Amino acid sequence: MNYKDILTDEEVKAFLKKSNDNLEVLGYTEHSEKHCAIVAKRAGSILSQLGYSKHDIELAQIAGAMHDIGNFINRNKHAEYGAILSYNILSRMKMPLEDRVIISSAIGNHDETTGGAIDAISAALVLADKTDVRRNRVGNKDKSNYDKHDRVNYAVTNSTVKVNSDKHVITLNLQIDEDICTMYEYFEIFLGRMMMCRRAAELLGTRFKLTANGRKVL
User: For the chain, what is the largest distance between any 2 Cα atoms, rounded to a whole number of angstroms?
Assistant: First the structure.
């Protein structure tokens, strides 16, 4: 079983579609299957570059693929809902108990308002999820109606995550159009998430760095 199997599962697809539809109505950025695929691949890549086992990489990828399914129930406590839903789905798929527990725990702890990294799988999930900042996550096409979240995401013209295993550093590099969003606005929205990334990186034995327009910020 791998994360691509998860993303083609009918139940997961239905949960993610309804999650994204609901959040779009509520004014949130994109939380679709595309976001989950990006998070899955990035979580696996982080652990791979840090020398973790193939099994750990697969668990992180599966957690990434499923992490936002709880949003179809409610945005509030979506991580906790997602943990329960993912456990049931993985049980149906006959995943070993220990792996189910690890993945569900990671999903239940990925939201910055209620959770935090508690092992390598959850740390990779946090880093992959919170660094998915990009212009095309903004669903609202009317720029005159953008709120701060829309402006901050739309202002990011390019973002990359680099892992330097020799120096034990994970870096989020952003290119931000400061005519659209100031750095103050970026941190007003994302400071909590960036601090969560810092703690997750430390759990993996690394440091988290943020650069914006070539300047070190964090």
Answer: 51
